[in-house]
Amino acid sequence: MAKKTSSDRPRRPASKFLLAGIDIGGTKIHTVIARGNGTVLGRARKKTRPERGFDGVMERVKENLLEACEEAGVRIKELRAIGVGAPSAIRADGTAVHAPNMGWRNAPLARTLSRMLHKTICAANDCDLGTFGEYAFGAGRGSKSLVGLFPGTGLGGGIVDRGRLNRGGNRLAAELGHMVVVVDGRTCGCGRRGCLEAYASKTGMSAGLAERIATRQWKTTLKSQEDLLGLRSSVLAEAYRGGDELVRDVVDEAARYLGIGVANMITILGPDTVVLGGGVFEALGRDLIGIVRTTARDHVFPPPSFKDTRIVLSRLGDDAVALGAVAYAQSEMGLR
Ligand SMILES: [Zn+2]
Predict the structure, then answer these.
(1) Would the pTM of this model clear 0.85, i.e. be above it?
(2) Residue 314: is it exposed, middle or buried by C-beta count within 10 angstroms (0-12/13-18/19+)?
(3) Ligand 1 center to residue 59 CA distance, Å?
(4) Residue 176 C-alpha to ligand 1 middle, in angstroms?
(5) Cα 290 to averaged position of ligand 1 atoms, centre (Å)
(6) How is the chain split into domains, by residue range?
(7) Which of 165, 201, 256, 296 could form a disulfide with 262, with the two C-beta atoms 3.0–4.6 Å apart?
(8) Predicted confidence band of residue 12 (pLDDT cuts 50, 70, 90)
(9) How many whole angstroms from 312 Cα to the centroid of ligand 1?
(10) ∠ at Cα 322 (317, 327), nearest 5°?
């Protein structure tokens, strides 16, 4: 039998590459080892411990990567590249400009990890990567232009346009949680007023609960200020499904605000897909997506453009940012 030549060898899929994706969050680090087609071979998780400072967190990132590699049966030197997401705007050189949750300012994220791991590091904002993950491997697979919105403690988002992340001319934009939806509204964590995050995130919902409790009596199962301050998505979901009058009022309002944010994004960008994820939608997505769709439909201009956009729930859940980092590293390295 004749030896196969390179010309009649079938084109190998992108799955031949091994990559790592690391999601550095305020509370946990989550790493996946995956093939280029998104197949996950191993995962590891670790507390971030931001109080140990930037260098301390970088050490924990390395430990977490080693644990994920061990789980996957892969050595670091087999990885083609490593994608990293962090809760900060990230410059083209991989510097994290400002990450309040981590206490970082102008932290040399990509340069430090590249020195420690001897690998190419492709770093980007975590919500940009969550959006890119859904585009590449999740609910947005097959779409051309996609917007992601992720309400959790805060509210992050991202934009993918024809296969590329759109971060604006300065690479620092697409901070969708800070689009203003109320004139002189609630104070946001960013210091300004009326941002979408101040209404549709868990922090916004806590404020909404406190405002209502201050003005009149509500029937509620929420027991204490603790429930309000550290509002967990699971507590919220349980109260919501149990018919808690106060919680339903606040959460439904948050979903309507999110619907306004979605309508604005459709009016401006006309994406074919909007993906909703993050802690709140992990817990209550099926209950809330109808409200978001209806509100978005009622506020889009021109009205027919709504029909061209799917509004769907995230499919990657906890893996979204890490898998987005895998897809991003692959795209930045030109691996196909
Ligand atoms: Zn804001």
Answers:
(1) yes
(2) buried
(3) 31
(4) 9
(5) 25
(6) 18-132+319-332, 143-314
(7) 296
(8) very low
(9) 25
(10) 110
